[in-house]
Amino acid sequence: MKKICVVTWYGGTNYGTNLQAYALVKKLELMGYDTKIKGNISKNINYFFYPYLVFDRINNKIKRRKNNKIIYEVDRDTQKLFNEFIKEKLPKLNSYGREEWGKIEKDYTAFITGSDQVWNPNYFQASMMLDFIPHNKIKKIAYAPSIGVNSLSKKIKRKYKRLLKKYEAISVREEQAAKILQDISPVSVKVVLDPTMLLTCEEWNELTDEANINRIEMLEEKYIVCYFVGDRKDYIRYVEKVKNETGMKCFVIPINNNVKMENCTTLTGIGPKEFIWMIKHASIILTDSFHASVFSILYHKEFYVLKRFPENSATSQNSRLHQILDMYKLSNRWIEDESQFIRDIQINYDITDKILEKKRKFSEEFLTEAIEKRGRQNENL
């Protein structure tokens, strides 16, 4: 059996980060490869190139201190579930020095840079471009990394161009990233699915069946799930509007406690399995998150994506949400103001599923072609 090493982020208590890592490893295993994962647990931000992020970080710390007790309770309850998930579901490869990698790498058919924003220059780590693999005969593949920004500086482009030369096959998650990287890539840059969309609902149900959910009322009544990465105050108005229209209970999966949702239950003890379970069984999802949107699509949910960033923001990540909604003919799920919030607009998931099936097939073919073919990837895949 051929051995593959996926190099991507995992760890901490970020749902999308850990679930995308799990999904790519799981998909490769289903394709018949013996797969291990390697990654840096934390995202080291390059503040030298992006000094404005220093102020964002300080501001966030000040805000978090105001809600220290709440955050501690959430972290304590969720951390155990995240730790268990990572230990059980992500077959890790030990860390080695560069000399040791020179010996170990020869056991592997390919090293694959995985998804998430591992190529975001704000969090740049050369290891996410496989700089630790000294041997040029080992296949280096990129599957769906995101750069997370709308442009790259000339200095970053020069650095990326040097590192990308070692890759035999490159794909990214967003069209914008493909356009930016094509000029500095040695091969044609493909656009493929986020790893979480490679797995079917039936395959994700293997996790939801193991979820630790003790709130029986969720099974007996319809409910709304709120999951917001951002902290825009207008989120409160949208949540209140849907609650008042539906009369449903509202549950908040906490990641940002700066926005208080009145008359909503803030959940604790929500690990990766429980996160998917909550979306799977919800009647309505309100979110500004890419991966919450992904699982809403996979499980055919009524969902709404609230605008998280101003469009002209240097740190805006709106483009990746625009793309996924446009791709699946779901642009009416994007909400910028209350006038757009019309609940009687139905989703035709028959159209969505056909698009997803086609893109899933293309993405699987990219992986197979990249791993199995000799030399540079076929440009006409």
Please describe what this structure looks like:
This protein is α/β, with parallel strands linked by helices and 381 residues long. The protein has 13 helices and twelve strands. It has helices at residues 15-30, 52-66, 68-89, 98-104, 154-164, 175-182, 201-208, 217-220, 235-246, 272-281, 290-298, 318-327, 349-372, and strands at 3-7, 34-38, 110-113, 139-142, 169-172, 189-191, 223-227, 249-252, 265-266, 284-287, 302-306, 334-335. The protein has a six-stranded parallel sheet, sandwiched between helices. Strands 9-8-7-10-11-12 form a six-stranded parallel sheet, with helices on both faces. The protein has two domains: 3-198 and 357-372, 3-Deoxy-D-manno-octulosonic-acid transferase, N-terminal domain (Rossmann fold); 201-347, Glycogen Phosphorylase B (Rossmann fold, 3-Layer(aba) Sandwich). The radius of gyration is 21 Å and the shape is globular.
Give a quick set of tags describing it:
single chain, 381 residues, alpha/beta, Rossmann fold, 2 domains, six-stranded parallel sheet, 13 helices, 12 strands, globular
Summarize it:
It contains 13 helices and twelve strands. It is of the alpha/beta class and 381 residues long.
Q: What is the CATH top level name of the largest domain?
A: Alpha Beta
- Globular, elongated, flat, extended or rod-shaped: what is the shape? globular
Provide the spatial order of strands within the biggest beta sheet.
2-1-3-4-5-6
**Reported CATH architecture of the largest domain:** 3-Layer(aba) Sandwich
Backbone structural class: alpha/beta
Query: What's the domain count?
Result: 2
Q: Give the amount of beta strand, in percent.
A: 5-15%
Q: Can you write the helix and strand succession as a string?
A: EHEHHHEEHEHEHHEHEEHEHEHEH
